[in-house]
Amino acid sequence: MSEEPGRIPSAILGASGYIGQHFARLLGDHPFFAPPLLVGSDRSAGRRLEDLWQLPEEVPGTLARQRLRPLTPRELRARGVRVVFGALPSGTAGVLESECRRRGLHVFSNSSDHRMDPDVPLLVPEVNASHLRALTERRRPGGILVTNPNCTAAGLVLGLAPIWKLLAPREVHLASYQALSGAGLPGVASLSITDNVVPFIREEEEKVVEETRRMLGTARNGRIHPREEPILAQCARVGVRDGHLEAITVVARRRPNRSEILDAWCRFDPLAGATLPT
Ligand SMILES: NC(=O)c1ccc[n+]([C@@H]2O[C@H](COP(=O)([O-])OP(=O)(O)OC[C@H]3O[C@@H](n4cnc5c(N)ncnc54)[C@H](OP(=O)(O)O)[C@@H]3O)[C@@H](O)[C@H]2O)c1
Q: Which residue out of 100, 106, 114, 151 is catalytically annotated?
């Protein structure tokens, strides 16, 4: 891989999929990262990104003609890659990401396999950037592994974090109406979703509950300690392309008024001042 001065050599695992294409869209011309190597399985190996492209946005020019390759973690390392963005299906992701980390690559993963590992931060930077401390308090040999949450849990914690102390919740109840994008490619069968709401998404409710409690928890002694308040979730799939709708009910110990809640949401801007490109 060609070293570009000042830009970090990277790769996308699962570059043919829905999340992989979003990574490509964001990384095609990024000030911090060199255009990434695109990794696919044997099924997509040899195909150009432009031929696999499914997003409404344009395929990035720097990556459009790159052919996907089934590169192993060892080969990525040998090509000088330092950071890997993971967009693999669960199961496959767990094995490959562990191997990448063991070989000294830094992994940022969208998959669920490592989200509950005690020393792996499950990160929404606005909410729990302090959990990154777990990586330095209990340093493993090799690279680091950071995960991001299920899309429904990500929206839920962003709504709750600014008002958590204000409300002191006793319980949280969530009903979600989730878009088709959340199911990846090729997505939900058209005959299942047309004129329908699908009231079951396998393991979704369990993930939303566990991940939310974890992200709102604290990092101590190299481990993440989840919150203990009960969270109840009910998740359905609806025939919308992008954007999940969430209805959240909080059973609260405190009773702030409406303007205190709105004010807390309006003032919530924890990344203000960070020099980030997005
Ligand atoms: N969609 C969302 O909104 C969303 C949100 C949060 C998290 N996630 C998580 O992110 C991950 C990716 O989701 P997705 O929606 O993008 O799924 P997807 O569209 O099915 O994409 C996964 C891609 O991984 C590739 N792949 C499979 N095995 C591989 C291997 N051994 N090496 C390299 N590539 C391989 C597959 O393509 P080929 O086999 O053709 O190469 C496939 O295109 C999943 O773990 C998912 O749970 C998704």
A: 151
